[in-house]
What does this fold into?
Amino acid sequence: MKILVVTLLYVPDGGPSAPLFGMLCQQLARMGHEVTVIATVPHYPTGRVDNKNGKKGWIQHSFEDGVNVVRIRKPSGNRNNFVHRLFQYFVYQLGATIAGLRCEYDAVLITNPALEVFIAFVFLVFLVVQALSFLVADVYPQVGIQLGIFRNRFVIGVVDAIERFCLHHSRLVWIFSDSFRMELKRMGVPDDKMVLVHSWVDTEFIRILPRTNSFSEAFQLNEKFVVLYAGNIGLSQDWESVLTAAHELSERDDILFVLVGDGSGKAALQTRVGEQNLRNLRFIEFQPHERIPEVLATADVSIATLQSGMAAGSIPSKIFSYLASGRPVIGILDEDSDACRLIHHSGGGVCVAPANSKLFAKYILDLKESQNRRDAMGRAGRSYVENNHSVTYVAKRVEEMLLQVRNLPRDVVDV
It folds into this structure.
């Protein structure tokens, strides 16, 4: 089967989705499919394009790990500026459309939000072929409203309209979380059109490694009990609970909160940490992909956090990576969310509700005092992702979905 994947970020770019789609596309290629990916040149998380990528032409072709990769050069911009991001999306969509029309494909997988892919969707799917699965990783415009990105009613209306268009003109809608169902039904997507396939992790790349390693040594973390957050430092996380817990534990010289990564919320968070003089909270810059296993291995406890109401519509992919690394996880998450249920079901950690910093701090202390409990959680979490969220397991499910979507008659599409 010839598979076309249209997604903004692809390895070696940053961001949680880039390595995920690298793994998936490479696995589908190993299974005998001809896979083509249309993405941007690497630019995440800063929004800036390296000069070497800017000199290779607008539409760049390569063959990487069995996958045909088409990269669209977009202009550098400030990701914190919404207008700049819209312009970058437009340039990408225009290039993706031109490149895609030159491709032969039996089935298409396009990732949301529609704001990033709408033009390509119209030309590559709606006007050409409707053998499409539309991946919903977050429900828009709701997530943008919650984050304060979308405030203008006209903008919200446009985002909602183009998202609905893509949802209604897709043959199947792939959802990452079962909690998406209610909201998507409200947007007119029938239940039998939705296919649930959870996120995945490279269990060969991210594995249980020694606590002492080159990363922990380079940043002098070996003598500390490390409470680690690794990933995007954005606007959706409950940083208030993290800062308050750090303040409550500030007298413990042996405990260090470490935040590894970058993002739109980092500068403001650094300012607050400085104002509160939190010496037990440390920022470390975004790390290259190949170093991620050692970053995760440096944790004694890993944390995943989202503001109240945000976890209802997503499962942060970092949770799967934390579990794969064999380290216990504390989730600062709504207790009725899929993300929290995942942590509990895996046996790899515990959850605390957002804004409950006292219980968060207590869990840190409890886990610090029990190496046996930490080890047991680590083993349970690792076993769970190996059995349920490996890329091999997920790729088979995606293959089934794309074969199904290819064979559906055109008149099943809800227009």
